[in-house]
Design goal:
Elements (H helix, E strand, L loop, with lengths): L1 E3 L1 H8 L3 H8 L3 H8 L8 H11 L3 H4 E3 L11
Antiparallel strand pairs: 1-2
């Protein structure tokens, strides 16, 4: 599973989703999906813009874990 740490980065910088949307041009809906880790995909351009905005590396924004998502079938 890929985890998105957007909520942590936003908390550290003390910004809201709407602030990030205005500054980056990324839609509020897409940012909300990333914030709540409901996004199914993310474009490389979006990763680049977010890493630039938060002055971080890709590994600070995204992390691969061995966790199984709660909403996935475990068959």
């Amino acid at each position: 599973m890929v985890r998105c740490h957007l909520s942590r980065l936003m908390g550290e910088k003390k910004v809201k989703v709407i602030d990030v949307a205005r500054e980056t041009g990324i839609s509020r809906n897409h940012l909300s999906a990333l914030y709540y880790e409901r996004a199914k995909r993310i474009d490389l351009d979006t990763i680049d813009v977010l890493c630039t905005f938060f002055d971080c590396n890709v590994g600070d924004l995204l992390e691969v874990t061995n966790e199984v998502p709660l909403n996935e079938d475990q068959s």
